[in-house]
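New to this. Explain these tokens.
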Amino acid sequence: MWTSLLTALSEGRLLQYTVPITGIELGQTAVTAIGMSLILLLLVGSGFFLVGDCVVLSPKPPD
């Protein structure tokens, strides 16, 4: 494996369009879709926790 990697690096043609993950090869579109969904999940999660912090840290209205 290392020999083919070194050969590809020395020739400057290391283009990988599939990513092997636990025995399954994912194409470039699948990797992009997974990355986009993870970024969206992080944005939604950060918004959820931001709203929770605003509720906890907001001053209580006077009685």
The first helix runs from residue 2 to 11.
